[in-house]
Amino acid sequence: MASPLRSAWREVPRSRVRHFARLALDEVPVLAEDIFREIRREYPNLTIVPDESGEPVALVGIRRALEHFVGYVSDGSGGPREHPQVFQEFGRGQVQHGRSLDSLQAMYRLGVRLAWRRLAEIGQQVEIPAPAMYELAESGFEYLDGLVAESMRGYAEAAARQAGERLRLQRRLLDLLLTERPRKSPDDADALAERAARIGWPLPERVAVAVLLRPAREALAPAVGRDVLLDMECEQPRMVLPDPEEAGRPDLLRRATAGWSGAVGPPVPLAEAAKSLRWAAAAVRLMERGLLPAGEVLHCTEHTEALVLLPPEELIDALARRRLAPLAGCGPAQGRRLAETLLAWLETRGGAPEIADRLGVHPQTVRYRLRQIRELWGEEVEDPDRRFELELVLRARRLRGDLLPPTP
Fold it and tell me: Which of 57, 253, 328, 338 has the smallest number of CB atoms closer than 10 Å to its CB?
């Protein structure tokens, strides 16, 4: 960007410019004090940080900025290429005190206004032409932009460092929280409280843990609040939701995870968070196999049957081989029809009309199939334990899609 000092200001005799600069530099100490005092009056909660000599760092920064600008004015060098490093520190300080840059920029504007009033008075005193003073004002605001840019750089660096440190501490907390141990010790509770305090996370009584499936590799993280612990570093991101049964929490979660798939484990006491994670991970594995609906973040408590019957696949299959052995001599289609009829009878213990309505067939068809079932299983269908086992294995088959669901 071309310097505004290359036209009207450069036509001002150099002796007059030097006179202006001398008077301005003489004013700098008092002007800096006036600006600092006015800023403190406007912003009484401003944190005052002293330097090694005990002088406020903000006052030192104001003084250096004024001296730097006047020096630039006096030599007309085409604009300051560097700005006092202390303004980066001011930006870092805003992060450390949990404030935005808005108030800092407002302070800068206040300082520029006060400085300009005094420089305008000096300009009149040494008879600097009005067009040159206008260009000096433009240069002052250009200089202000540079100071703001320095502060933004410091702010961004500090914010990134702080976010990285919080993520590191949060991962340590999650590791402790989500690692399943045979027994929890008092030391675990103390460590949990200490790690939670370091990131400002109030310990809830109950939590639910979610496991997510990324909709895309570069998908933006769910827009959850700071009270939700979110770990995006895992292949399948994890979330710890405090007080999941609190009113409105499910709606907030649904909005925050729009476009994501996954599962939320059951609510558990804080010390048992790993159990909630285990169920959420199991549900996600079923989603990946197409055995639970994808496209949303579902709640494990709404899919208890699938989670109880489908994960212990080997056990259910072994039980099915024993209890469904009578079907071995039937063809695939006949065996499926008999299995569906048997399950409908076990679930309802109703008569032929009720079962027929459930299966969408004629009652006489149901009577015929029930006679076949009694011939195949005999007295087993009268034994409560055998009926329970038969219902378990047949429900598992229906969940896998091997049997048709009942007609609504």
Answer: 328
